[in-house]
TrEMBL record:
Keyword Repeat: yes
Keywords: ANK repeat, Repeat
The name this protein goes by in its record: Novel STAND NTPase 3 domain-containing protein
Occurrences of domain Novel STAND NTPase (ranges): 29-165
Top-level taxon: Eukaryota
Alphabetized Pfam families for the sequence: Ank, Ank_2, Ank_4, nSTAND3
ANK repeat copies, ranges: 460-492, 527-559, 560-592, 627-659, 660-692, 693-725, 760-792, 793-825, 826-849, 860-892, 915-947, 948-980, 981-1013, 1014-1046, 1047-1079, 1080-1105
Tagged with keyword Repeat: yes
Organism field: Mytilus galloprovincialis
Length: 1105
């Protein structure tokens, strides 16, 4: 596939290298039920997210799926950033983007999260193109982060590989063990249940090549103890081992992304890092960078991978372990040098109960180093990593938060003020926003006390109170309000703190906000959604209660005119609905589409909601939307039988139709909802009520093959012969759609009109035969319908079946005495049409009948053999000739195999058509040189003329078929044989500018000066048409340059008249008489001057005109 239009070649090569590595790894893939499920989802969904604990095989599975899709024509793009999707996707090109750890490896990464949020709407729009797909992996800890739920594209379809449903079964674990440990399978099976990251352990054991040195049981009993021992051995082995050890430390220190830039000793900061770690590993600071790089190369496949010149630890689980191992051994260096995210995510001072269950491989900070740790955080804050500091895991500990503030207070006031104002380098948030988001109330108080901008907004309009309200941090909200935070301030989307709190069911925050005198309780966002609308939508009953107690406007609708009652009905929130009705919500208030709360509840099968709404006296049960659909119509269409029952109990109009005249019964019948149909019929629905096109419920059910519905309708006296406005009956439409069971049921009815025809006089059998539905045809024939009944054009069922090549239908009709010779109104028989369409099998079947007329001709006198030969259907021709078709009733259309077959069966090669065209003439006219040769070899008359005296040579010369001309001349064609106007082959070839034909004719002694009845010579006609190459050829063969026509016009005169200066030059160079005048005295110069041909005039004057 050519990707050049979108993806540059060097980038594409990077992708291909990654994919080649995936292919190599994929050789060890073991198929699982999870794989099959993921494959099904990827094919049907735009975005699939694989979730699970580290080491459960998420990445391996995503890559395996990607390789399969590549075989299905997808461009697979290993991606790191959301921008890659917009950058590399082209509409209409099947593309799969593969994201590993889509929003952070250990915890949710704020920068990556922000990037996704900013690109979310654009990416969502791209995903509407079915060619664009995403498969991503995400650690369970990251997936469960509350913020992650805002990334809706990753919630479309998620599959948790750690869950009971998709984790490896015992059989799958056994298969995995057999793949990696052929000799020790039983031993591994016993250990497989110990870890949920069993797939990772298999891979690590295999890649470490441990089989000879380390027993499986010792490795699987405590894999990370094994790696500790390995690292100790590596360090103690030699300087080479220390260098490898140091290179791993550096890779970890750069947070598992070690690029070429990280080796740059021109950067003082990087040089300091490298020197410090070399010293810590007891290596000389003069150790060459090359040695460190070389050592990483040696560790590829066992500890590290190299992806596009970036080194990473081979798996995140192993990285987690190494991070803890090296971080604790070199604590001070990591505190000073490590990546900011590494500092925020992986270090813990005092473990709280909430932390212990969610953190693995953390680096414990001893009390004596807590000051250094906080100093590092303050340095990060100062450098613009504000969010990283605010979301630090340790901030969940009140003790840490207080200790952190103590250190803050020890800074100069000016430095404190600088920190308060510092914006995050990515989100542009200040610390107050981040603290409000995470609910670090003590830090919030400190920031407020230092005059932080309490209403600070970033670019998208989010501000501290909005963050705190969203996350439900009621103490923070209270503090902000007490310090005059603007309670009605909104984001750029028009979202207020009250709205976001209502949407997220933050009842305590809602309560606090509603205590504010100036809070705008009915404020709406840009979509017109108020707080009570948001709460009703999400079913937050307590929030709705609180809002109603504060007199929220219950009738406030969104931009689509949907009310809170409407959205609660739509989503099935019965308690909210009941509360709204008790506060006199308008039960019949409709959206812009005219859909009422009752209708949307019926559409979504919210039975309890429907029940509650129908208890209200003022509900309009028969209200119709803009399409004229009533509630009963909607419920019937969707097959919601319990809703239908509820509506009918309350006397809904059972026959109320939509704008197209479609009744509830017709809708239910159309969609095959037999229980609904039964319910409607029991409530006296009109079984024969048709829509505006005359379509009845029975016709629709028959059309769609709903046999149970058909049976039910017939039991309630549905009119079996009721036709649509175009005359189509239920039986006909069932035949058309090959609904055999429906046809069978209909034919059991005594009153069915089996030969009923539509407006085109097409019967059921005709329709079934036309479409090749042989089982339907058999069913009809068993009920003795008229086998020869024709449409308005005289087309019989046998004709239609023959035309479309339905040989089984043809056979069946013939068994029931179908008239094989019954012709269409233009005289075309079933055999004719089968020959025309090259239906060889049908022709063969028809020719087995005793009563067929093989030489029957249509109204134009064409036989079956003529039609087949005309279209070059050689197998049909052979079949006809084997059954003694008249060989001379055929066509010669240049199909050489047909011609040979006809000649083989003694066809008359000189037999002419009705207008005296011989086979050789026709072949010559059409340039069929192979046919010409075949005919001439079998003594075709080379000079036999058409009725206007045109010979084969003449017609070939006229049409420029030079190879045919050569063939005819080699077989003694008369080169000067003229037509009835005395025009020769040379004359017509000259007229049409066929210079190669002219050459061929002249080489065979064509009369170069032979004139037609008007005394026009070949040279004259070539000059008149401006064919300069022909003129040159004729003059070279002694054409009379001054030969005039009956009017005395010479070739030079006519060329001057037409303005062909090149022809004029050629004639003058060959001694044309420049002053030779026409009979009326007009000279070449006169006519060229009159016509305004300046170049011709100049040429003539230069030759003494």
């Amino acid at each position: 596939m050519n990707h050049d239009e979108v993806i540059p070649k060097h980038i594409q090569e990077q992708f291909e290298r990654r994919l080649e590595q995936w292919k190599e790894d994929d050789q060890l893939f073991v198929s699982t039920e999870a794989e099959k499920h993921v494959m099904r989802k990827v094919l049907t969904q735009s975005s699939v997210t694989l979730v699970g604990n580290s080491g459960t095989g998420k990445s391996f599975l995503s890559k395996h799926i990607a390789l399969i899709l590549k075989k299905h024509g997808y461009t697979v793009i290993p991606s790191n950033k959301p921008e890659d999707i917009g950058k590399w996707f082209k509409h209409g090109r099947k593309t799969l983007f593969v994201f590993d750890d889509v929003c952070g490896r250990y915890t949710l990464n704020e920068q990556i999260y922000t990037d996704w949020k900013q690109n979310l709407d654009f990416i969502a729009s791209l995903l509407t193109d079915q060619c664009c797909k995403i498969i991503s992996t995400c650690r369970l800890e990251v997936y469960n982060d509350e913020r992650f739920r805002h990334l809706s594209i990753f919630k479309m379809c998620n599959i948790d590989l750690s869950s009971r449903e998709y984790k490896l079964s015992a059989a799958e674990q056994n298969a995995l063990a057999e793949m990696y440990f052929t000799d020790n399978t039983d031993e591994v099976k016993e250990l497989s249940e110990k870890y949920d990251f069993f797939p990772l352990l298999c891979s690590l054991y295999y890649k470490q090549k441990l089989r000879r040195n380390v027993s499986i049981s010792s490795f699987f009993s405590n894999p990370f103890d094994f790696f500790k021992d390995q690292l100790v051995q590596m360090y103690n082995e030699s300087d080479t081992g220390k260098i490898q050890y140091c290179s791993l430390v550096i890779c970890v220190m750069f947070n598992n992304t070690l690029t070429e830039e990280n080796w740059s000793i021109k950067d003082e900061k990087i040089e300091k890092i490298l020197n410090d770690f070399l010293a810590e590993c007891e290596l000389s600071k003069d150790t060459p960078i090359k040695s460190l790089k070389k050592s990483l190369k040696a560790l590829e496949g066992t500890y590290v991978v190299n992806e596009d010149s970036t080194y990473k630890i081979i798996h995140h689980k192993l990285f987690d372990f190494l991070a803890k191992y090296f971080g604790e051994k070199m604590l001070q260096l990591f505190l000073y040098h490590a990546n900011t995210d590494f500092i925020a995510e992986r270090f813990i001072w005092k473990m709280t109960d909430s932390m212990s269950t969610e953190i693995e491989f953390v680096i414990q900070i001893p009390d004596k180093y807590i000051g250094k740790y906080i100093e590092r955080l303050l340095r990060d804050w100062k450098n613009g990593y504000v969010y990283s500091v605010c979301h630090n895991r340790n901030m969940k500990s009140t003790l840490f938060e207080e200790t952190f503030i103590t250190h803050l207070n020890q800074r100069d006031y000016s430095e404190q003020q600088e920190l308060v104002r510092t914006k995050d380098i990515h989100s542009k948030d200040i610390a107050l926003s981040g603290s409000c988001y995470f609910g670090t109330v003590h830090l919030v108080k400190w920031l407020i006390s230092r005059n932080s901008d309490i209403n600070y907004c970033r670019e998208d309009g989010w501000f501290p109170l909005l963050w705190a309200s969203q996350e439900g941090h009621v103490d923070v909200v209270t503090d902000l309000i007490q310090h005059s935070a603007d309670v009605n301030k909104c984001s750029t989307d028009g979202i207020s703190p009250l709205q976001i709190a209502c949407y997220n069911n933050r009842i305590e925050v809602v309560h606090v906000l509603l205590q504010c005198d100036n809070v705008d309780i009915d404020h709406c966002d840009k979509n017109g959604c108020s707080s009570i609308y948001q709460a009703s939508q999400e079913g937050h009953f307590s929030v709705v209660e609180e809002l109603l107690q504060h007199l929220a406007d219950i009738s406030k609708c969104n931009n689509n005119d949907a009310s809170p009652l409407y959205i609660a009905s739509q989503n099935g929130h019965v308690n909210v609905l009941t509360e709204l009705l008790q506060h006199e919500a308008d039960i019949n208030k409709c959206s812009t589409d005219g859909i009422s709360p009752l209708q949307i509840a019926c559409n979504n099968n919210m039975v309890e909601v429907v029940h509650v709404l129908l208890q209200c006296d003022d509900v309009d049960i028969d209200h119709c939307n803009k399409n004229g659909c009533s509630s009963l119509c909607i419920a019937s269409q969707n097959g919601h039988v319990n809703v239908v029952t509820e509506l009918l109990k309350h006397v809904a109009d059972v026959n109320k139709c939509d704008n197209n005249g479609v009744s509830p019964l017709l809708k239910a019948s159309q969609n095959g909802h037999v229980n609904v149909v039964t319910e409607l019929l029991q409530h006296v629905a009109d079984v024969n009520k048709c829509d505006n096109n005359g379509v009845s419920p029975l016709l629709k059910a028959s059309q769609n093959g709903h046999v149970n519905v058909v049976t039910e309708l017939l039991q309630h006296e549905a009119d079996i012969n009721k036709c649509s406005t175009v005359g189509i009956s239920p039986l006909q439409i069932a035949c058309y759609n090959n609904m055999v069971e429906v046809v069978h049921v209909l034919l059991q009815c005594d009153n069915v009109e089996i030969d009923l025809c539509d407006d085109d006089e097409c019967s059921s059998r005709y329709i079934a035969s036309q479409n090749g539905h042989v089982n339907v045809v058999k069913e009809l024939l068993q009920h003795s319908s008229d086998v020869n009944k024709c449409d308005n054009n005289g087309v019989s069922p046998l004709f239609k079946a023959s035309q479309n090549g339905h040989v089984n239908v043809v056979t069946e009709l013939l068994k029931h005495a179908a008239d094989i010779n019954k012709c269409r109104t233009d005289g075309i028989s079933p055999l004719h049409i089968a020959c025309y369409n090259n239906m060889v099998e049908v022709v063969h079947v028809l020719l087995q009948r005793d009563n067929f007329e093989i030489d029957l001709c249509d109204d134009d006198g064409c036989s079956s053999l003529y039609i087949a030969s005309q279209n070059g259907h050689v197998n049909v021709v052979t079949e006809l000739l084997q059954h003694s078709a008249d060989v001379n009733k055929s066509s010669q259309e240049g199909h050489i195999d047909v011609v040979k077959d006809l000649i083989h069966h003694s066809a008359d090669v000189n037999k002419c058509s009705n207008n005296d065209a011989s086979p050789l003439y026709i072949a010559s006219e059409n340039g069929h040189v192979e046919v010409v040769k075949e005919l001439l070899q079998h003594s075709a008359d080379v000079n036999k003329c058409y009725n206007n005296g045109v010979s084969p040579l003449y017609i070939a010369s006229q049409t420029g078929h030079v190879n045919v001309v050569k063939e005819l001349l080699q077989h003694s064609a008369d080169v000067n044989k003229c037509n009835n106007n005395d025009a020769s082959p040379l004359s017509i070839a000259s007229q049409n500018g066929h210079v190669n034909v002219v050459k061929e004719l002249l080489q065979h002694s064509a009369d170069v000066n032979k004139c037609n009845n008007n005394d026009v010579s070949p040279l004259y006609i070539a000059s008149q048409e401006g064919h300069v190459n022909v003129v040159i050829e004729l003059l070279q063969h002694s054409a009379d340059v001054n030969k005039c026509n009956n009017d005395g016009a010479s070739p030079l005169y006519i060329a001057s008249q037409e303005g062909y200066v090149d022809v004029v030059k050629e004639l003058l160079q060959n001694s044309a008489d420049v002053n030779k005048c026409r009979n009326d005295g007009a000279s070449p110069l006169y006519i060229a001057s009159q016509k305004g041909y300046v170049d011709v005039v100049k040429e003539l004057l230069q030759h003494s005109a």
